[in-house]
Structures are given as structure tokens and as C-alpha cells.
Write a structure and sequence with these properties.
The protein is mainly α. The chain has 4 helices and no strands.
Amino acid sequence: MNRRAGLALGWAWVAAILYLSFTPAPPNVGVEGGDKLGHLFAYAALAYWFGQFYSGRARLFYAVGFVAMGVAIEFVQGALGYRSFEVADMVANALGVAAGWAGARFLPLGVSRA
């Protein structure tokens, strides 16, 4: 895959996470704990995807940045009035980033990295 196109897809995923995080009516998966699984998988996919294009410190920088994004989103949601602040969401986001980071490190797709 072209690196530029891959990164554009990654940033589109970030935009999708932001949209779903701030929309007044997020999708309901209809499964007990499905919300937390959604957080886990969304952030795992995000970290894994960006981990395909970066290595070393740059990969770690993105991982830390995505954890910070997940924490910041929860604080903003708490201030919105129509969404809620949940520490469990932060934990699910961070665990997802850790899983995606590990996956990118140990199961790479073989795309060109910076």
C-alpha cells in the first residue's frame, strides 16, 4: 500500500473515532459490555494501523498520543452534558492501544516505515 494513502486512511479512522465520540447518539451494539469492546477494538486498530507506518520512538509517540486522545475525549464528553465521562472507557482505549502497538511490533504487515 502507498504510504501516503495508508496514513490518510489512518487519519480518517481518527476522524471517525472523534465523530463517534462526540455524536449525541452513538451506535448501540446491543451487547452487554459492547461499548467497552468497541473502544478496545477501535483503539487497537488505530494503534496497529499507525504502527505499520512507524517504528521505534515514532511508534511509541503515536501510541502515547492515542492514549492521551482517549483520555482527553472522556473529559470532553463529561463536559458536553449529553455524553458521559467513564474511566472504564479510558482503560479500554489504553488497553486497545497497547494491544495494537504490540500487534504492530510482533505481527507487521510489511509496509514501508519511517
